[in-house]
């Protein structure tokens, strides 16, 4: 029997990513494919650099999108800034700090791990103490917005400490870029990466990155070749680094880049600070509704990400049952806990195009009905009422 065209169901994506994609972005991706060295495409690449500089709040010349997901953006930073035998401090407070460690090891470098509890921010005091013990450290790496827990760390302070000891910094902003303040130049971040599918609300598969002049100098003076040919910035920058004329490195994902370009145009139209405020406003409305229902968060308020809400599962309620009913009955996707948090939390994303009042109210109503039917000890009827009052205030 022949296989027919694939038609996915319509979902409300409220998980840890991807987020809902604007129809404008989907339309942009359907436009005619042209060559990756076509003058019109090259002109769009120049615009993309400018748009990403705005989004990252930087003037870094080496700012572009890696032609692969955020995990490749992570690897781009590590393979270009570390050499065999180097020491790198990795601050881990969730799943993705563990992936950083893996990258350090695969570069032939030595990871020095700083562990913080899941759901807590990275502790700056621990970083300073570790740097005193390991003054020959080359790189300090940490996650700004830990997707596995919804906790955010103090980037500015951590970077300041790392720089006092002569280290370069690598910062993961996969979940924060576009949804929370990210200020590359003001915070003096050396290498940063993100993803297209979260608060930027594009389709998955691209990783915006940016490198400071200090990081570029390190790349230029390496004693060894970067471990990865495809991610070697000494080669990639010949395609992305210039203005106008570009040297061939790889065939860029042309239509996907149309989509990211449109996503960044939408962000520019809204305004980066307005986007940060929208994400926070919808988080506050969700928070009021959840707390009225009797549910709570695992992350303390000062460190809580507005776009990734880690909610404690009520006693006696089975994680997968609720997520399955949300998907099958309401078309709503939320995320399960990872690692140490598996079975303990739900991860509810309010990212990009998904971060709106309609989605918050639909989710609260659906969750309340499911939990009530399952016999959870919650305040029935309180969630959407409290959220609506908060939204109207």
TrEMBL record:
InterPro entries: Aminotrans_V_dom (IPR000192), Aminotrans_V_PyrdxlP_BS (IPR020578), PyrdxlP-dep_Trfase (IPR015424), PyrdxlP-dep_Trfase_major (IPR015421), PyrdxlP-dep_Trfase_small (IPR015422), SP_NH2Trfase/AEP_transaminase (IPR024169). SUPFAM superfamilies: PLP-dependent transferases. GO terms for biological process: glycine biosynthetic process, by transamination of glyoxylate. It is an enzyme of class 2 (transferase). Residues 41-337 form the Aminotransferase class V domain. The modification N6-(pyridoxal phosphate)lysine is found at residue 198. Gene3D superfamilies: Aspartate Aminotransferase, domain 1, Type I PLP-dependent aspartate aminotransferase-like (Major domain). Substrate binds at residue 347. GO terms for molecular function: alanine-glyoxylate transaminase activity; L-serine-pyruvate transaminase activity. Keywords: Aminotransferase, Pyridoxal phosphate, Pyruvate, Transferase. PROSITE patterns: AA_TRANSFER_CLASS_5. The keyword Transferase applies. Its EC number is 2.6.1.51. Its cofactor is pyridoxal 5'-phosphate. The keyword Transferase applies. Belongs to the class-V pyridoxal-phosphate-dependent aminotransferase family. PANTHER family: ALANINE--GLYOXYLATE AMINOTRANSFERASE (PTHR21152:SF40), AMINOTRANSFERASE CLASS V (PTHR21152). This is Serine--pyruvate transaminase. It comes from Candidatus Nitrosacidococcus tergens.
């Amino acid at each position: 029997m022949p296989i027919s065209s694939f038609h996915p169901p319509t979902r409300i994506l409220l998980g840890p990513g991807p987020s809902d994609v604007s129809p404008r972005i989907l339309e942009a991706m359907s436009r005619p494919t042209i060559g990756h060295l076509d003058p019109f495409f090259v002109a769009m690449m120049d615009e993309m650099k400018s748009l990403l500089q705005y989004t990252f709040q930087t003037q870094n010349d080496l700012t572009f999108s890696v032609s692969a997901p955020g995990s490749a953006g992570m690897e781009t930073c590590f393979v270009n800034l570390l050499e065999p035998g180097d020491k790198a401090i990795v601050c881990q407070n969730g799943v993705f700090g563990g992936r950083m460690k893996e990258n350090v090891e695969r570069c032939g470098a030595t990871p020095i791990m700083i562990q913080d509890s899941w759901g807590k921010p990275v502790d700056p005091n621990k970083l300073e103490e570790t740097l005193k013990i390991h003054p020959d450290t080359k790189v300090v790496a940490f996650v700004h917005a830990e997707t596995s827990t919804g906790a955010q760390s103090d980037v500015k302070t951590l970077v300041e400490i790392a720089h006092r000891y002569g280290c370069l910094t690598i910062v993961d902003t996969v979940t924060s870029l576009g949804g929370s303040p990210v200020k590359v130049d003001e915070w003096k971040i050396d290498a940063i990466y993100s993803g297209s599918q979260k608060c930027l609300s594009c389709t998955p598969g691209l990783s915006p990155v940016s490198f400071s002049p200090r990081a570029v100098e390190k790349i230029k003076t390496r004693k060894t070749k970067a471990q990865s040919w495809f991610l070697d910035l000494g080669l990639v920058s010949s395609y992305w680094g210039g203005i106008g004329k570009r040297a061939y490195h790889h065939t860029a994902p042309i239509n996907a880049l149309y989509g990211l370009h449109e996503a960044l145009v939408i962000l520019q139209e809204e305004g980066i600070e307005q986007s940060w405020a929208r994400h926070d406003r919808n988080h506050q409305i969700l928070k009021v509704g959840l707390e009225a229902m009797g549910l709570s968060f695992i992350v303390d308020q000062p460190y809580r990400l507005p776009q990734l809400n880690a909610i404690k599962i009520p006693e006696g309620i089975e994680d997968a049952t609720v997520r399955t009913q949300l998907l099958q009955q309401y078309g709503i996707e939320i995320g399960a806990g990872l690692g140490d948090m598996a079975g303990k939390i739900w991860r509810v994303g309010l990212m990009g195009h998904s971060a709106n009042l309609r989605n918050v109210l639909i989710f609260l109503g659906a969750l309340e009905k499911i939990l009530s039917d399952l016999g959870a000890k919650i305040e029935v009827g309180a969630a959407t009422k409290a959220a609506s009052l908060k939204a109207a205030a």
